[in-house]
Amino acid sequence: MKVLLVSHHSFDLWMIPDSFAERLRKDFPAVNVVHLKRYTEFEAQLPDTEVTMTWSIRPEQFKFARKLRWIHSPAAAVHQLIFPELVNSDVILTNAREVHGPVVAEHVMGLIFALAKRIPQAVRLQSKHVWGQKIIWESHPPPRELSGATLGLVGLGSIGRDIARHAANLGMRVIAVREHPEKGKPENVVQVYSAAQLDEMLSQSDYVVLAVPTTSATRGLINAPRLAAMKPDAQLINVGRGPLVDDNALIEALRGRKIAGAALDVFVEEPLPADSPYWDLDNLLITPHTAGLTEKLWDRHYALFSENLRRYRAGETLLGLVNKQDGY
Fold first, then answer.
1. Which fold, 101-286?
2. What are the φ and ψ backbone dihedral angles of 72, each rounded to 5 degrees?
3. Catalytic residue among 22, 41, 145, 270, which?
4. Does 118 qualify as catalytic in the annotation?
5. CATH architecture of the region 2-98+294-314
6. Which of 37, 119, 171, 209 would be a feasible disulfide site paired with 114, CB 3.0-4.6 Å?
7. 241 counts as catalytic
8. Which residue in the list 72, 118, 178, 241 is annotated as catalytic?
9. 3-state secondary structure 122-134
10. Active-site residue 35, yes or no?
11. Dihedral sign of CA atoms 48, 53, 54, 56 in order
């Protein structure tokens, strides 16, 4: 069987390293592992490929993949792969949500601490050589304790569950919205709401974290009415995908202090354009899509993919299966 690894990105960490392919060849000597560092040869390699690990494949390329049986995405989000030809095929789709969950959850907790303790404001004052104790205390909202605060999670996948665990250990009250509330209430979550009850969850939350994929149901999820449902001293955190948020509505809400602040790691357009109004908002913390960055990234990718390759060859159920109809 042939396994095709292909990636090309301007950011080196997102490129499949040579060591990844070398480890596969060593651990699976009967498998033909082909590693491409750009997509120019992708179509030529597809006809006899059975398994591919790739960020994307276009519909016009998919038609060449006559022997393809399994696509693995190194990303958690797979909206770029949800097109009719693939969705309606027998090709299995898996993603790396379990790879990214732990490190993204840590990043979220860092953002919550930064917002709660007014760290960005302190950094700005430091750059001006200002002793800002009184300024910070009189800011809106002032520094607060996390114990006893309510964290509202939108999404209870691998990232959401890890966030819930960390938050509960700090004494936070964790509530959540999930698409299928009938799946029950995970450990560390005190209340689960349906998607139709999102406004109710928002109205209770001191911190709202978006950790869901982009689908037709979640695109533009946080809009002006939803922001109006939040507490005036609440803060929004997005580590899901940029399209979850209506940018114009959030910019207006932050400018008008309709909510206290926000922290965004993801944006509709990345890199964020230099002329974006987001840059100049003093109640917004921007991290440049760094929530998933870790020196352990490709070791975790290898552990997942190699285990799945073993399972695939043995005819066993794969980890990280994507429901192609639902898009995640």
1. Rossmann fold (3.40.50)
2. -115, 125
3. 270
4. no
5. 3-Layer(aba) Sandwich (3.40)
6. 119
7. yes
8. 241
9. HHHHHHCCCCCHH
10. no
11. positive
